[in-house]
Specification:
Distance between the termini: 67 Å
Number of strands: 14
Shape: rod-shaped
Strand content: 15-25%
Structural class: alpha+beta
Number of helices: 17
Helix content: 55-70%
Length: about 550
């Protein structure tokens, strides 16, 4: 097919001339094939004796050979010399062939007359559109000459007028086609110009972007929609100790082969989906700890064209974080023992184990007990936070009673609710199973933290603890209050460690700011999620949703 296209195409600086000469080559090829087929069939039937070698057969041989030779000559002229001359010769040859194709009367006013419209139509295709009128004149003159010479009659004026009518239709069609082609060429030129301009702008933008990427201290990798790296900056090559060609174009499995499988799955999902609202993640890449953030890359129309990942070498900070957690864990252990001793001795003194206690002494001992418990709670929170961040906290799955869980929380927290005149309500929905699987101690801790927060920020009304089943696969713990509520701009940060809505030193409500952070992290360890709905002045509702079937028996 490539060779055939090369034979049919004619190189020309004029696209209209090239198009017409190619069409002529197609016509010549088609006629040559038909002629060759006719010649072959005639030879076969002559050889096998179906038709004898008579004058008609010889005429077919001669005519076919003459047509093949004529077509070849016209083909050579068309390809290497002039398309206009080749087209004119082809039309004349075709018209002459029509003259001798039938009886003169049939040619003039019979079955062969309509054949003269064919060169008229072809003239508008392989020559300029106006050539159809010239060919109509030639056909009319041929018909008139045949009538005059062979039949001695009067030229058929209606037939000749019909030729010009056909020429008019052919001219209109061909002219409309050429005008459409011209308009298309103008549009193509404009598109080519726009593409050239956009390519230039894109090249400049890429150059600027590359300069920006090269200047960024953090590592950057740009991925396409299927997750293949298409661009990388020098900082990333230094982080990974790999040349750019080892990163760009590689598949994700090869690129992330030094990443732990569970982290690799998360990274691949973020690269391919890039929701845009996911915070940075930390993971081990070989011997380094990296912090990564992913975001979608979009074109001007808003379509996603890929994603970009920003990687920061977090190895030193991770080591400091580990050392801090070890220090906090050690200090917490050391502080918890004397605080428990202080609390025990104070309780013993308050209960007059070592002798009578006056009213002033009793009040002082109660203050000591309250403040010691507060300090002990802070120390416990610090220890839990350190264990969670160090990955040392274990979730132990076992059956537990939902009603006992709620009752224990109510009994534990009533001592804080009653002095403030708050009603502490516990409820287990009827559709919740009596026994579920989970870590009862950590579930109790979650509820205590949420209820403690609710009581702390509620001055009147009630605190409601409810366990229910939102769907067939999950169960939920809900703590709602009628307290102060949380401002909308603070709701996204309340689960951060050590962060509080009122962070001033003179704040009314004391605390370490770890309660909600521990709630979120414990919930995540259990495969659940915690949400908050709050309105200032109307209270807050915290909901912890957990799977009915624990994700695994033990999570570290």
């Amino acid at each position: 097919m490539r060779i055939v296209r090369q034979l049919l195409d004619v190189p020309s600086i004029d696209p209209d001339d090239a198009r017409r000469r190619k069409l002529l080559n197609i016509l010549l090829t088609g006629i040559s094939l038909l002629t060759f087929l006719t010649l072959s069939i005639t030879a076969i039937v002559n050889i096998i004796g179906i038709v004898s070698l008579d004058k008609v057969t010889l005429l077919i041989y001669r005519g076919s050979l003459a047509l093949l030779i004529g077509s070849l000559i016209i083909f050579v002229i068309n390809r290497y010399w002039s398309g206009w001359l080749a087209g004119s010769l082809f039309l004349l040859l075709f018209t002459v062939a029509l003259i001798f194709s039938d009886d003169p009367r049939q040619v003039v006013e019979g079955r062969s007359t309509f054949l003269f419209t064919i060169p008229i139509l072809m003239a508008s295709v392989i020559l300029p559109p106006w050539a159809s009128f010239i060919m109509a004149g030639v056909s009319s003159l041929v018909i008139a000459a045949v009538v005059k010479i062979a039949l001695a009659g009067v030229p058929p004026i209606p037939t000749m007028l019909g030729f010009f009518a056909v020429a008019l239709v052919a001219w209109l069609s061909s002219r409309s086609l050429e005008q459409a082609i011209q308009e298309l060429r103008v549009i193509n030129r404009e598109l080519d110009q726009r593409v050239e301009e956009r390519t230039h702008d894109l090249a400049q933008a890429l150059s600027r972007n590359q300069a920006i990427l090269d200047g960024i201290a953090d590592g950057v990798i740009v991925f396409d929609n299927v997750g293949v790296p298409t661009m990388v900056n020098p900082a990333m090559t230094r982080i990974l100790w790999k040349p750019p060609e080892a990163i760009v174009g590689s598949d994700l499995d090869t690129l992330l082969q030094e990443v732990m499988p569970e982290d690799r799955e998360v990274i691949e999902e973020l690269i391919r989906t890039t929701p845009g609202d996911v915070p940075s993640i930390k993971f081990e890449w070989g011997k380094k700890t990296l912090s990564a953030t992913f975001a979608p890359v979009r074109d001007e129309a808003g379509r996603k064209t890929g994603s970009v990942g920003v990687f920061r070498d977090f190895t030193r900070e991770a080591e400091l974080e580990r050392m801090k957690n070890i220090f906090i864990s050690s200090v917490s252990h050391e502080l918890r023992t004397p605080l428990n001793a202080i609390l025990g001795y104070a309780d013993m003194l308050k209960e007059a184990v070592y002798g009578p206690v006056s009213g002033g002494q009793r009040n002082l001992l109660e203050r000591i007990i309250v403040n010691t418990r507060r300090q002990l709670t802070i120390v416990n929170d610090l220890l839990d936070q350190a264990q969670i961040e160090a990955g040392m906290l274990k979730i132990k799955i076992a059956p537990f009673s939902t009603k006992d869980l709620v009752a224990d929380v109510i009994n534990t927290m009533n001592g804080l609710a009653q002095p403030k005149g708050l009603e502490l309500i516990g409820e287990v929905a009827a559709d919740v199973p009596d026994v579920l699987s989970g870590d009862q101690q950590r579930l109790h801790q979650i509820l205590v933290n949420l209820v403690d927060n609710a009581i702390k920020f509620t001055t009147e009304g009630s605190v409601h603890v409810r366990i229910y089943q939102p769907d067939t696969l999950h169960w939920a713990m809900e703590v709602s209050d009628t307290g102060l509520g949380i401002p909308p701009d603070a709701q996204s940060r309340i689960f951060e460690p050590f962060w509080q809505v009122d962070g001033s030193a003179t704040r009314e409500h004391l605390g370490s700011g770890l309660g909600l952070a521990i709630v979120k992290q414990l919930t995540a360890l259990m495969g659940g999620e915690v949400t908050v709905v709050s309105q200032v002045g109307e209270g807050s509702t915290f909901t912890v949703t957990l799977p009915l079937v624990p994700i695994q028996e033990e999570v570290k």
